[in-house]
Amino acid sequence: MSKVLVIGAGGVGSVVVKKCASVPSVFTEIILASRTVSKCEKIAQETFEKYGRKVETYQLDADNVADTVALINKTKPKLVINVALPYQDLPIMDACLETGVHYMDTANYEPIDEAKFEYSWQWAYQDRFKEKGIMALLGCGFDPGVTGVYTAYAAKHYFDEIHYLDIVDCNGGDHGKAFATNFNPEINIREITQKGKYFEDGLWVEIDAMSVHKKINYPNIGERDSYLLYHEELESLVKNFPTIKRARFWMTFGQEYLTHLRVLQNVGMTSIHPIVYEGKAIVPLKFLKAVLPEPSELGENYSGETSIGCQIKGIKDGKETTYYIYNNCKHQAAYNDVKSQGVSYTTGVPAMVGAMMMLTGEWMKAGVYNVEEFNPDPFLEKVAEHGLPWQEELNKPLAVNT
Ligand code: NDP
């Protein structure tokens, strides 16, 4: 039915391509382009071996709008799935505008010289996308992504008003490395070393990085120390569900990870400001990324599972209601399916399903949208069918209900 262009051949890109290949009725042709073409070729080879589907590959620097426009004009996709880095969001959206092609991504724009992510830059494309008659779907991974759809599903089926939202994200897995990040190390470290933030009574409350934490009990995993972070879906969810009084995001980190991170920060290795080394300007965090394991290489010996969900409190028919909706994903199950670890998998599967929603017309209207603005039901059905079923608990005590 449709040709897609996937940009970014990392951990997430590998899952997206393979999952698209598994649904030939929707994704009739798949093109993969990235900065390092050998990574595209490896994914294409693995996809051919497993699904017997050919993937066309191209070298592309997606920071360069003209190059992306040229590739889109040459290959003529209906949709571009951006799973490169957040820095490329705006240049790729510009290329989509110029060529009249739909757009989706899994992480919101972030300028390279400032560790600050917010939707304002991408929401500012609303009128231009509408006028051009094309759609942009923002943040369609797991978090952001499925967490927004879970919230929309809760609002549709279980609440008249949502008042309290806690997104809880646990990686209860072990990849056997002393220190590695589960998605792009540069983006991951920028995210967790910046100040934390949550929404309460109409205001954003800022806290020092990692200064608020509590033990949360995760299904099938147990209690884990969970830290309050700022996460991008909070921004769109409090806008799209204005009855929310408080919205927070919690993520688990092990002591070993935090100790490494503290040392790296203390010695200046997480800085995004260039230093001159042997006459060449280098960014310490980019150098650090180069010596850390690639997220796409963590899968083989990864044990344990992830558990991500939304804990919600609000009102239904005048009565206080609590609801917890979540998914647990085993790293080995992800590896057995597409040779990936659970974090890339839980991002790539919803990205493929978001693309499917757009291409089948379930979610299609001109303009720029977040996932929670669409009907959650068909999305959740397909996400479950393709590897990430949801569980739910109604009116049971919530672990973070304080
Ligand atoms: P990786 O670092 O594994 O992959 C990123 C890929 O993008 C690499 O192949 C890289 O190329 C490529 N790339 C970087 N810059 C450019 C460029 N200028 N032009 C073309 N290609 C480029 O990261 P992940 O796969 O783990 O993450 C991908 C995206 O998914 C990130 O934006 C991340 O924030 C997001 N994400 C979202 C999640 C969610 O739940 N919503 C969870 C996890 C990740 P090269 O190989 O040459 O470096």
- Flag low-confidence runs: none
Please give the alpha-carbon distance between the first and last residues.
48 Å
Rg from Cα: 20 Å
DSSP E strands, number: 18
Mean pLDDT, rounded to whole units? 96
What is the helix content? 25-40%
Globular, elongated, flat, extended or rod-shaped: what is the shape?
globular
Number of helices: 14
Please name the CATH topology of the largest domain.
Answer: Dihydrodipicolinate Reductase, domain 2
CATH architecture assignment name of the largest domain = 2-Layer Sandwich
Structure, described:
The chain is of the alpha/beta class and 402 residues long. It has 2 domains: 2-138, 3-Layer(aba) Sandwich (Rossmann fold), CATH 3.40.50.720; 146-337 and 390-394, Dihydrodipicolinate Reductase, domain 2 (2-Layer Sandwich). It is 36% helix and 29% strand. It has 14 helices and 18 strands. The protein has helices spanning 11-21, 37-51, 65-75, 89-99, 120-123, 126-132, 146-157, 185-193, 233-240, 255-266, 284-291, 331-338, 342-359, 376-385; strands spanning 2-7, 27-34, 55-59, 79-82, 102-105, 135-138, 161-174, 196-200, 203-207, 213-218, 222-229, 246-252, 275-277, 280-282, 303-316, 319-330, 367-370, 391-394. The strands form 3 sheets. Strands 7, 8, 9, 10, 11, 12, 15, 16 and 18 form a 9-stranded mixed sheet that branches. It has a 7-stranded parallel sheet with strand order 3-2-1-4-5-6-17, with helices on both faces. Strands 13-14 form a two-stranded antiparallel sheet. A hairpin with a 2-residue loop joins strand 15 and strand 16. Helix 1 packs across helix 13, helix 3 (65-75) packs across helix 4 (89-99) and helix 7 (146-157) packs across helix 14 (376-385). The longest helix has 18 residues, at 342-359. The mean pLDDT is 96. NADPH dihydro-nicotinamide-adenine-dinucleotide phosphate binds next to helix 1 and helix 13. Residues 7-13, 34-36, 39, 60-63, 83-86, 88, 106-107, 141-145, 183-184, 187, 294-296, 343-344, 347 line the site of NADPH dihydro-nicotinamide-adenine-dinucleotide phosphate.
